[in-house]
Design brief:
It is a single chain. The protein is mainly alpha-helical. It contains 5 helices and 2 strands, in the order H-H-H-E-E-H-H. It has a two-stranded antiparallel sheet. The chain starts with 8 loop residues before the first helix and ends with a helix.
Length: 120
């Protein structure tokens, strides 16, 4: 995985695991890769993966079954979706609207572009 400098690596790893949950790779109560497996796959130090998993566990996205590993919490996908929607509405949209005003882009232009790419 290629990491960017905008965000801590462990947070990027947590985001990626959330992406995989949203994509259906892992469903409710599915086991996720072990901390070591994920660290190897992401080519990072195990401690970094531990921080990512601790963050997700604290947020209620995954939970630990002692001696068995980490599993996806029931309803985690909906929780991630709601959280990301709120973040998008509060962070990304205001900047996008500001850019639209500066560039003279009307909402109708955005709707047309949305339809053009096949979004529904």
């Amino acid at each position: 995985m290629t990491f960017n400098n905008d965000k801590a690596i462990y947070l990027q790893m947590a985001d990626r695991l959330c992406d995989e949950i949203l994509a259906g790779t892992y469903g409710d109560d599915d086991r996720v890769p072990s901390v070591r497996e994920y660290a190897v796959a992401m080519e990072v130090n195990t401690n970094t993966a531990v921080k990512a998993y601790d963050t997700l566990a604290r947020d209620g996205i995954i939970y630990n079954r002692r001696g068995m590993g980490y599993y996806v919490t029931a309803g985690a996908s909906a929780q991630i979706l709601n959280s990301r929607r709120r973040a998008f509405m509060h962070n990304a949209l205001p900047d996008m609207f500001r850019q639209m005003r500066l560039l003279g882009i009307a909402i109708d232009d955005v709707v047309a572009a949305w339809k053009e790419v096949g979004a529904e």
